[in-house]
Amino acid sequence: MKQIGYEQEGFHWQRAVIEVLLHSQSPHIAQGVDAKDNKDEGAGDQGIMFGYACRETERFMPAPIYYAHNILRSLAEARHSGAEPGLGPDAKSQVTLRYEDGRPVRAASVVVSTQHSPDLDQDAVRAIVRPHVLNVLPAGWMCREEEFYVNPTGRFVIGGPDGDAGLTGRKIIVDTYGGSAPHGGGAFSGKDPTKVDRSAAYAARYLAKNVVAAGFADRCTIQLSYAIGVARPLSVYIDTHGTGVIGEDRLARALCDLVDLSPRGIREHLELNRPIYARTAAYGHFGRAADADGGFSWERLDLVDSLRSALH
Hints:
Elements (H helix, E strand, L loop, with lengths): L6 E2 L2 E2 L14 H7 L13 E8 L8 H19 L5 E14 L2 E14 L5 H15 L11 E3 L21 H4 L20 H18 L5 E8 L8 E5 L8 H11 L4 H8 L33 H8 L1
Parallel strand pairs: 5-6
Antiparallel strand pairs: 1-2, 3-7, 4-5, 7-8
Helix pairs in contact: 2-3, 5-7, 6-8
């Protein structure tokens, strides 16, 4: 809260009271999940997880979500530096791009909602936001003025949980790939890496990104499915959307040979049992640079050479 800059009457880092209320997990779940005797650690729940990668941007992310995050980064940097003192810490964006022959060519619409000081009106906020959008989008990509929406309600002074808060998980499409890829439905934030909602989604992204980076496809979706208490995935499905240069079944076999996709195998391969998750609270969980301390380990490209060796 302090780092982001929440210092408003209804939500202030100095006055916040935080309560932690925990009890042990149901033993009926634990008996299928915990590793003991000769039994490996099972998945913490049933579910389907997806990973995606493409060549639209340098980070192997779909262009709409990539530019939406970068617009917010630009605004946050201006706020933290003091260049735009009238902006508040709460903000969100949405970019819709027009595609031709499968490639993005320009913005069809841009939406930016940003918290601001009470003395700024909508036109003033629009004037602040516009250059950040122009600087982030490629030259000539800006949408028509009537499709450029800034604070569409007209005013956004009260922000953060003081203004609007839900309890069903963060916006999972913003945390992943925008509207470009399927989502299993489970939120990531708030779950430890034994939960396949989080760890298997990270693994699927890791595999898909390495497939694209290795040159085996321009687009790749990977679907993993699990059953509670069962260690191995029930299915590993790969779709290269007609852009693949190798059979998808063969690709799936190679990936399963290279990475153990059990909950324990994922956690150990990506080294997820570390305090590396606070940084995922903004700008999405994917399309980030892998950090030296292990943060965003699922963004590494360390499978590329092994994949090429296995498939050539």
